[in-house]
Amino acid sequence: MTRKDTMRTISTREELCAIVPPDDLFARYAVPARLHGGWVLGGAVAFVRRSHSGRRSLATWGPRGDLGRLLDRLIADGVLCASLDHVSVQQADAEVLRARVPTADGSAWDWMATTTASAPTPAEARVVPLDDTADAAELQDLADRENPLSEGYPGTGRSERWVGVRDDGGRVVACAAVHRLSSGAAHLSGIIVASSHRGQGLGRATTAVLTRDLLRSEPVVTLGMYADNVVARSLYHSMGFVTDKAWWSCSVLAPDGSGAGRESACS
Closest Cα to residue 94, out of 252, 221, 258, 254? Predict the structure, then answer.
């Protein structure tokens, strides 16, 4: 068996970054310094991620041929199984996974990052600080009305900072939050604009304010978005964010057809 066909383990982000291309922002910024489990076969890599709630997910990517061989080994070794909460592969490689294991319906999402801030806009003058506790009910009400899939989680302590815009009556009509990935990188979440106030540049304003402030002291700002949101993608790209990984995430089903409990993988 050649080295190309031999699976080996890795245990650190440093080892992972030595394998992937130097411009792989996900490997560099979204992966924790110590891995809960990592594997390499040829040019394909995989590692286990843990969410804030402790759920275990497997992220894997690389050249399709190597990726297929790596998935085969992870299945044979019992790593890729229904005990995982999610498995994430590149959207273009979803069939490589589906051909090997039964999966539940998945979701497509983009992981983005930027190292540069966009130019200020007049709407940023309307952006004010919000409080994770005091404003939690209003933030959650905005999310429930406008985007139930939002991942800001107000009032839970997961957000280290909120900003937003209030209308003339003092109601929150736009918001955005800062979370931390397991790597420690800043991650924007909970970006919402009320439908009644769209077209005023408020999503750009809240995102830009947080991004600019964070980049004064940090190397990168990241965010995740569901792939069908073409308006948001265009906005973020215009602000300097690049799509580094186009993921497809799903649960692996057990032989009886059941799968692990699922939460959003868009983080």
Answer: 252
Beta strands in 104-236 (DSSP E): 107-114, 128-130, 161-166, 172-180, 186-193, 221-226
CB 228 within 8 A of CB 91: no
Q: Is 228 left (phi over 0), alpha (psi -120 to 50) or beta?
A: alpha
Model confidence at 53, in pLDDT bands (50, 70, 90)? Answer: low
Please give the model's pTM, rounded to 2 decimal places: 0.92
Tell me if residue 20 falls in helix, strand or coil: coil
Contact 97, 87 (CB under 8 A): yes
| More confident call, 21 vs 267 | 21
What count of other Cβ atoms lies within 10 Å of the Cβ of residue 210? 22
What is the average pLDDT value for the chain, to the nearest integer? 93
Strands 86-90 and 107-114: unpaired
pLDDT reported for residue 3: 56
Give the single-character DSSP code of 5: G
Determine the Cα–Cα distance for residues 203 and 211; give it in Å rounded to an integer. Answer: 12
The mean per-residue pLDDT over the stretch 223-248 comes to 97
CA-to-CA distance for 233 and 136, rounded, in angstroms? 27
Residue 119: count of CB within 10 angstroms of its CB: 8
